[in-house]
Give the backbone structure.
Amino acid sequence: MSFLRNEGANYDSKRAMIICQMSNFTPGVLYLYEKSQMFKQILAYYVSRGDSDKVIEVCKQYSEKAPNLWVDALWYFAERYNAGQEANILLVLKGKHC
């Protein structure tokens, strides 16, 4: 991971991402998504894991650059709706105004 974060390292981000994906090196994949501003893919990762807290966290962290993350999060919570998700849906509807 330190190699990926090294500002002086000379590597092709796309190739590095493929290698990280093939190796199931999730921290590297998520780092390269962030570095490449692939915020929707970061959100999709946490959606696929069913990690509601991280879905909200990703929206809060990256919504300035990618406001449509909130729409994707709303779809996620609407599909998973149960009484326990009501607070998350309200949080998503408020978006960055929370």
